[in-house]
Write a structure and sequence with these properties.
Shape: flat
Oligomer: single chain
Structural class: mainly alpha
CATH class of the largest domain: Mainly Alpha
Largest sheet: none
Number of strands: 0
Strand content: under 5%
CATH superfamily of the largest domain: MetI-like
Order of helices and strands: HHHHHHHHHHHHHH
Number of domains: 2
CATH architecture of the largest domain: Orthogonal Bundle
Radius of gyration: 29 Å
Amino acid sequence: MAVTTPEFDTIHAPAPAGRRRRYTEDQVSIWRIMLRMSAGLIVLGVFILPYTIMFFGSVKTKSQIRSVDPTYFPLEWHWENYITMWSTPETPLPQNLISTIVISVFATLLVLGVALPAAYYTARFRFPGRMVFLFLVIVTQMVQPAVLSSGLFRQFVTLGLIDTWVAMIFVNAAFNLSFAVWIMHSFFAGVPKEIDEAAQIDGAGRLTVLFRIQLPLVWPGIVTAIVFVFVASWNEFAASLIVLTTAGNQPLSVALTKFVGQYETSWQYVFGVSVVAIIPVAILFMIIEKRLVGGLTAGSIK
């Protein structure tokens, strides 16, 4: 009489093909995730490395930075560099920081005030010379402030605005206006006209449609324009060097060069000012991050 052993049969029974396939697919998925994470970490390291070196250099002494055999990490952490650089007689950094903030903020607000209605009008209305206007707008983006610095200096001397914040606000606004108009124009053009028509049927005027209907839908474009204009104004150098002649009125980009001399350079202060100059831009990105994500998802749920 034959005796069956279910346990033996269960142990030696082959696994189903579908289970083996799923196990292999899971392995491939894990490897893909690991490769993507590794690639992301490599890219992150490439971008962060210069800032890390700059930060470590800001807490070193000049001799450590210029050493024949330099070290990556500081042998001694000299946090007093961040205090000393604010009290150097040749560079009034507190005034330079205030000047940079005022110029960048008001230049950005001026650009938004002009570019927003211009972009909306060019995207919604067909008028004679529209394409010529847009072409001339983008042509101005090809001209840099460094090329027109001498002409700007002469013009502001005539207007009595030389060595003033107002002059640099106008310069930064003028040279960043074209990009803001174009980027917001493309976002306004991507919104269906039927949305405007539906709001007007309900009794909304043009301004109501622009500010209450269109702005939430094109918020990513507005945020992009804000970031671009603010960062470009914050880093502007050539025109500021010529138009602003007083040390206290100059922005941080110009004040940074005061630590670079013909025979000697205070690299610890150069690195320290660079770190300080990055902080406001980083704060701006942290503030607008949620609004940017919110604008990207606006209108996805009805």
